[in-house]
Amino acid sequence: MTSDSTSAPLPRVAVHLTAGEAEQAMRADALAGLTSSPKTLPPKWLYDDRGSALFDDITRLPEYYPTRAEREILATYGVVIAKASGATSLVELGAGTCDKTRVLLDAMQAAGTLEQYVGFDISEATLRDALASLASQYRDTEILGVVGDFEHHIDRLPSGGPRLVAFLGGTIGNLLPHERARFFASVAGMLQPGDGLLLGADIVKDPERIVAAYDDAAGVTSDFNRNVLLALNHRLDADFDHDAFEHVARWDTDNEWIEMRLRAIAAQQVTIGGLGLTVDFAAGEELRTEISAKFRREGLEAELAAAGFEPFDWWTDRAGDFALTMAFL
Predict the structure, then answer these.
(1) What is the pLDDT along the chain (329 residues), one digit of tens a residue?
(2) 266 CB neighbour count, 10 Å cutoff
(3) How many whole angstroms separate alpha carbon 325 and alpha carbon 156?
């Protein structure tokens, strides 16, 4: 492995979600979510280029344990996972900056199985930068990229393998139960028998620790959450004053998930020019931007089994905060 990037070829990236298509999807989501009661936005729109950079900052915060815990699991059990998977191709959904990816790639390389890496993400600029960095380090590995939305374009992933599909970071928790069922079914539908799914999941624990992870003292998560309003301003010609909303993180005991919301500090009216829409916010009214479900082993394995997966193993960090689970078709 070398860091010399002078002759590293740029990875091939297939773009299945153009800027125009992403804008159309955002328009549809914003129209549906901002005219509903209560108001909502899908969490994927938090991750524009600035949002992705802010989330990368969040992963380094002292309160945000999931990234450190997941990295510890990968460092401890990565080679075991690589050998058990039997995979020569690693496919990562929601690749982002590919920061933790290197730990798993190194493990597969140490196991002598690594041939191909495919990064899949909604942000083209973030993905291209991350893949270029990987290409300079893993010269003997085919590095490919796919720009898309995993709710619509998961069937566009290149074939090859055997494959291990990694969905890390606890992102599975951003999906509602019926969305998780649809996601697991779509992943199962594009895999071959013997292919595997490696899933990162945050574990149910003391709610105070969970809330702190989504409402840090430095206010980075607040900036990350409110950034979605700037994205709407930029892409849909809206006039949100993002300083007129405050970040809220709340634990839902019944559903065992954290909710991120934006609360209007005062009554206000927002115009979304790209939709020809005017939206009123009452003082204290909240816009939900994300849920992040936390899991118990038996519940998550039951969801995987319902989609046709056979759970294989479950690994946690020493503190038992986070888990990686692997399942096969």
Answers:
(1) 444 545 567 899 999 888 788 888 899 999 999 999 999 999 999 988 899 889 989 999 999 999 999 999 999 999 999 999 999 999 999 888 888 889 999 999 999 999 999 999 988 888 999 999 999 999 999 999 999 988 888 888 888 779 999 999 999 999 999 999 999 999 999 999 999 999 999 999 999 999 999 999 999 999 999 999 999 999 999 999 999 999 999 999 999 999 999 999 999 999 999 999 999 999 999 999 999 999 999 999 999 999 999 999 999 999 999 999 999 98
(2) 10
(3) 24
Q: Is 3 contained in some domain?
A: no
Residue 128 amino acid letter: R
The total number of structural domains that make up the chain? 2
On whether both 197 and 96 belong to a single domain, the answer is yes
> 115 with 88: CB under 8 angstroms?
yes
Which one-letter DSSP state was computed for residue 8?
P
* Amino acid of residue 251: W
Residue 221's domain spans which residues?
37-58+207-293
> Is 97 in the same domain as 53?
no
Q: What is the pTM of this model?
A: 0.90
* CATH code of residue 72: 3.40.50.150
H helix and E strand count, the chain: 9, 14
3-state SS class at 131: helix
Nearest to 92 by CA among 114, 110, 76: 114
User: Are residues 84 and 180 both part of a single domain?
Assistant: yes
**182 and 200 share a domain?**
yes
Strand ranges inside the chain, DSSP E: 12-15, 39-40, 89-93, 116-121, 142-147, 163-167, 196-202, 245-252, 257-264, 268-272, 277-281, 286-293, 310-316, 322-328
**Residue 139 and residue 117 in contact, taking contact as beta carbons nearer than 8 Å:** no
Do both 73 and 148 map to the same domain? Answer: yes
287, part of any domain = yes
